[in-house]
Amino acid sequence: MKNRLFHALLVLFILILFGFVFSALANIVWKGLAGMAQSIASKEIQFAIRLSLFTSFTSTLICIVFAIPVAYGLERFSFPGRKLVGVILDIPLSLPPLVCGVALLLLFGTTTFGRALAEHGLRFIFSVNGIILAQFFIITPYMVRVLKSTISDINPRLEFVARTLGCTQWQAFYKITLPLAKNGIIAGLVISWARAIGEFGCALMVAGATRMVTETLPVALFLNMSIGNLEMAMASATCLIIISLISLFIFEIVGGKHSPASRMS
Amino acid sequence: MIRLCNIYKNLGDFQLKNINLNIEDNEYFVILGPTGTGKTVILEVIAGMYKPDQGEVWLNDRNVTTEYPESRHIGFVYQDYMLFPHLTVQENIIFALKLKHTATTVMKQKLEQITTLLHIGKLLKRYPATLSGGEQQRVSLARALVAEPEVLLLDEPLSALDPHTKEVFQQELKNIHGQIKTTTIHITHDFNEALVLADRVGVMFNGEIVQVGSPEEVFQKPRSQFVAEFVGMDNIFSGDLIDEDGVKYVHIGPVRIHVVSNLIGRVRVAFRSEDIIIAEDKLFSSAQNTLPARIAEIIPRGPVFKVVLDAGISLVALITRQAIDKMNLEPGKNVWAVFKTTAVHVF
Predict the structure, then answer these.
(1) Residue B274 per-residue DSSP state
(2) What whole-number distance in Å separates Cα of residue A14 and Cα of residue A192?
(3) Which of A264, B267, B303, B326 has the maximal Cβ count within 10 Å?
(4) Which of residues 52-71 of B touch A (CB under 8 A)?
């Protein structure tokens, strides 16, 4: 009898949470899909989709270029201050994106460093570059985290055996560890890209929210909400929901695959 | 040749203290010691995974202490195989050859030689995860040997295998070493492996090599309490193994010992002193070896007593004080020495 009550309670909690999440999403998708065709035809949404795809792909690409060597270095090499470096790199994970945005705005807007970059043509403030910079800043710590745990699951002795067989450190890395980390890298890419495309707060502070200039999908959602254009707002939201569903799906498929032999016993 | 001079290495959990070893060309050297005494660390220092805190590593008259692993020409086989899981068996084996840009024809030839030697020709297209432990260990050995290393390092290569596979592979290791003669260091905690395989044995305890010698020397004349307790093989003899209607006996001088073995001809047998039972009357039991003997000597050894028996050959039994008192054992007394066939190691 008591067990039944317990089971009933579990089911109840699951149903409440599921109902809450599902109805919120279904409602917006339902209404968004209705006006979707029309909204997508509009120049503004098209611009937002294009800009979102461009900035998120660019930032994810730059992110992976940094994240792989950083994660590998932090995981496989010991040097003084390694832990401290790891902790500081993790900080943006727990900071509100708005704070990250202010930090970037101040670094690139008010310091000599930022002004020097701007003079040489690399302007970040209130520009598309700023969106990419903000996305990069937000997603790279995630990527580093995912890759660090992937790499720590790969037994370092595999690389060591490769070296006794004649590999240099670089060869052992790209012939052994990199292919074994493939699934982790793909999973990291997908989840980072999904975060990049949804990034709003940090990009807002750095790049602003200018219609048809720095208008990504979240910015389109924000701008249209603020002027009461619900239909356009919901179309943007629906695009973002579809994107996150697809990436979650890919993540589940790729993330679920692990080759057991490569894991530490 | 491998020479270790005054090696010190502190890894926190494991330590190496003042390791000095000289391993000759073509020698099969077994490092024997209980788990957690830093045996693997020795191999990893020789191979270059760790730099020693102090001391030098010499391979064939080259001081390689500061060299990278990739330039040391070492074959390394781990207990858990460490095959590259994303490569097929064939790709694993030719890994080193490909790195050296070996010509395809030469590569094929070497691949065939090594797969024939280790009987793994049928596995080439498979991935490591689909192989049994014994198969993985063969592939792992093939991968190391195909590069023709100057030195072969085996880290507990038999420990993860089931008893039958282990015995087969152990014999094969011996045969392979007989053919290719690569200088080998083999690490184990199993004294039986040392008996069967070793030209010389080094016993390791607490990060130190406490005794080096031939298996007979180490087992018969342990130089410390630890070695004696760890190896515990007081009874080692040479004899002739003869098959008498399917029943195997080893003749040692005037004595005939019942054994289980596939060997034939000149062999050595060994059994532990605690496996011998001393009986006043001839026992009728499942133990097939019952020898009449006279007590030659009784020597205290820690909490127990070492009883030296003259049974035509000199046997050593280990028994307690109570047993000696109860049976009134004293030098000169005639008794029976009883031990099971399965307690006798033949090699």
Answers:
(1) G
(2) 28
(3) B267
(4) 68-70
Contact A136, A206 (CB under 8 A): no
Looking at the structure, tell me whether residues B245 and B136 fall in a common domain: no
Phi, psi of B128 (to 5 degrees): -50, -35
Taking only the tens place, the pLDDT of each residue in B5-63 is: 999 998 888 889 999 999 999 999 999 988 877 888 899 999 999 899 999 999 998 99
Here the tokens at position A99 are 């704070």
CB contact under 8 A, B128 and A261: yes
For the four alpha carbons of A238, A243, A247 and A249, in that order, the dihedral sign comes to: positive
Q: How far apart are CA A261 and CA B131, in angstroms?
A: 11
Which of A164, A261, A265 lies nearest to residue B69, judging by beta carbons? A164
Instruction: Please count the helices (runs of H) and the strands (runs of E) in chain B.
Output: 10, 20
Tell me which residue in A161, A166, A168 faces B82 most closely, judged by beta carbons.
A161
Interface of B with A in 252-281 (CB under 8 A): none
Q: Does A250 touch chain B (CB under 8 A)?
A: no
Cross-strand pairs, B335: B293
Q: What residues does each domain of chain A span? A: 35-262
What one-letter code names the amino acid at A189? L
- pLDDT above 80: residue A153: yes
CA distance B330 to B318: 14
Classify residue B196 by its DSSP letter.
H
CA A16 to chain B, closest CA, distance in angstroms equals: 43
Q: Do A165 and B95 touch (CB under 8 A)?
A: yes
Closest residue to A176, CB basis, from B70, B84, B96: B84
Nearest residue to B129 (alpha-carbon basis) of B162, B83, B166: B83
Q: What is the tally of structural domains in chain B?
A: 2
What is the value of ipTM here, to two decimals?
0.81
Average pLDDT over residues B229-258: 84
Q: From CA B345, how far away is CA B185, in angstroms rounded?
A: 23
Domain of B258 in residue numbering reads as 235-346
Looking at this protein, which amino acid is placed at residue B173?
L
Alpha-helical segments (H) within B184-295: 191-197, 215-220, 225-231
What superfamily does domain A35-262 belong to in CATH? MetI-like (1.10.3720.10)
Q: A43-76 vs A128-152: helix axis angle to the nearest 10?
A: 40
Q: Across the interface, do B99 and A259 touch by the CB < 8 Å criterion? A: no
Residue B194 near residue B201 (C-beta atoms within 8 A): yes
Window 98-157 of B: residues touching A by CB (8 A cutoff) are 99-100, 128-129, 143-144, 147, 149
Task: Check residue A18 and give its pLDDT.
Answer: 97
Tokens matching residue B84? 């590259």
DSSP structure string for A62-129? HHHHHHHHHHHHHHH---TTHHHHHHHHHHHHHS-HHHHHHHHHHHHHHSHHHHHHHHTT---TTSHH
Segment B88-129, tens digit of pLDDT: 999 999 999 999 999 999 999 999 999 999 999 999 999 999
Of all residues in chain A, the one with the smallest CA distance to B99 is A166
Quick one: which of A150, A142, A204, A225 has its CA closest to A180?
A: A150
Q: Same domain for B258 and B302? A: yes
Residues B180 and B94 in one domain: yes
Last residue within a domain, chosen from B202, B231, B260: B231
- In sequence order, which residues have a C-beta less than 8 Å from that of residue B45 and are 6 or more positions away? B4, B7, B9, B16, B51, B52, B57
